[in-house]
Amino acid sequence: SYTLKASAPGDHALTARVIDPSGATKEHSISIAVFDNKTKDSLPWKEEFALANRTTSDDGKTSWTATRSKGVFEVKENALFINDKGDEGIFRTGEINITQSPVDISLDISSQGGVDKGDYVKLYQIVDGGTEKLIGEIKGRQSHLSTMRGTATGKKLILIMRSKVSSDDEVFIIDNLKVTPR
What we know:
By secondary structure, this protein is an all-beta fold. Helix content is 2%, strand content 54%. It folds into two domains: 10-39, no CATH class; 41-181, Jelly Rolls (Sandwich), CATH 2.60.120.200.
């Protein structure tokens, strides 16, 4: 029996070395994940956009920013709204601790008005500082609520959503962005 004293959260290696009577050495290593309270509480990560209307960022537990130089990309009625003619809007989360991976990623999307094939919502992931990887995309009108789903494995996750509508009467509504352990 051995007690591993690891003060820092993260992955730690424990190696057992045995020397038999002839002097031969055998080793076996295992990886042990150590969590602190902050890490334990980081999942599930769920953004329901239950914030004041016109909010474009949140610096709380589910930190994110939404930017768009022209057009609307902001909280309205407890959801994230993308509407009015303009350029592509970008939504970006802060780092999400996914050391409890693999994780599932999901997002609810609906549309209103004259959304057409030129209008889109694309969801990307960046895992452990890598490059953007497309999780899924929706183009055009959604006749009902759609859910976009993906998975990730790693230590740190950033989600990026890119969206555009090309007319003032077109609206995408985003809600229930979730990252949950499998």
